[in-house]
């Protein structure tokens, strides 16, 4: 268990490589951890199948030094691809609702940087507020106050970690008259309504998977996960892995 901590990630990977003697490592969802452990796995010439880390820096390493990093593979969209589709969705929303003042609330994480850069470049003066928050922020009242003061008509959230919960609760409690969209991973869970105490009404986010027969294994996986844990697999981490 890396606990989203690069140093704990290194310890976990070293245990897998040198104690358990594994030939392949699958997973990790925080790019900061994956960036920290990637060189260790590569130096030992073992497979690293990165399932849900989005930072392009990981695959950039393969381009820069293929002989060393050729054991690295990705099964998930990277941030550049995500940014391209997010901007298309945001543009459609702005046109449909005739709103052009956008605020971005994004967690401070390496995977977010290409998306924020693309939004800033695309929106220009239509970006009326840009607020960065900690991944585990418990209180976003200051940031949301600035969003409200900027008269934002759309709030584009980019929150993969726990900050998605207080963001949704405080947005609703403040009755900020803005549409909320973007990418809030906590909102992918069927427990999001309960976790926000019903404040998630009117909240739209990306969803990476549903119970569908994509392969013979997908529905059995979904059903066995729900039976074991008491809820359906919600976040993107389940499907990609």
Give a summary of the structure in a few sentences:
The chain has helices at residues 6-18, 31-43, 56-64, 66-69, 79-97, 113-123, 141-149, 164-173, 192-195, 218-229, 236-240; strands at 24-26, 47-50, 72-74, 102-107, 127-133, 154-159, 179-184. With 241 residues, the chain is α/β, with parallel strands linked by helices.
Poorly predicted runs of 5 or more residues: none
Strand content: 5-15%
Radius of gyration: 19 Å
Number of strands: 7
Give the assembly state of these chains.
single chain
Please provide the ordered H/E string of secondary-structure elements: HEHEHHEHEHEHEHEHHH
What does this structure look like?
This protein is of the alpha/beta class and 241 residues long. Helix 1 packs parallel to helix 2 and helix 5 packs parallel to helix 6. Helix 2 (31-43) links the parallel strand 1 and strand 2. The chain is built from 11 helices and 7 strands. Strands 5-4-6-7 form a 4-stranded parallel β-sheet, with helices on both faces. Strands 1-2-3 form a 3-stranded parallel β-sheet.
């Amino acid at each position: 268990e890396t606990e989203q901590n690069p140093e704990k990630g290194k310890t976990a990977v070293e245990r897998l490589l040198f104690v358990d003697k594994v030939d392949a490592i699958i997973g990790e969802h925080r790019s900061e951890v994956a960036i920290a452990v990637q060189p260790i796995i590569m130096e030992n010439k073992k497979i690293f199948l990165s399932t849900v880390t989005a930072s392009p820096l990981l695959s950039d390493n393969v381009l820069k030094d293929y002989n060393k990093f050729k054991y690295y593979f990705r099964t998930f969209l990277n941030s550049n691809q995500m940014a391209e589709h997010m901007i298309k969705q945001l543009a459609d929303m702005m046109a449909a609702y005739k709103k052009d003042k956008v605020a971005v609330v994004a967690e401070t994480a390496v995977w977010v940087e290409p998306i924020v850069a693309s939004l800033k470049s695309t929106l220009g003066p239509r970006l009326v507020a840009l607020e960065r928050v900690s991944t585990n922020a418990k209180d976003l009242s200051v940031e949301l106050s600035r969003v409200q003061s900027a008269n934002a008509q759309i709030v584009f959230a980019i929150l993969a970690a726990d900050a998605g919960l207080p963001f949704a609760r405080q947005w609703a409690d403040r009755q900020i008259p803005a549409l909320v969209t973007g990418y809030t991973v906590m909102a992918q869970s069927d427990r999001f309504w309960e976790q926000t105490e019903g404040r998630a009404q009117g909240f739209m986010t990306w969803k990476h998977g549903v119970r569908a027969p994509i392969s013979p294994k997908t529905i059995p996986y979904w059903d066995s996960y729900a039976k074991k844990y008491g809820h359906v697999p919600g976040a993107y981490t389940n499907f990609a892995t």
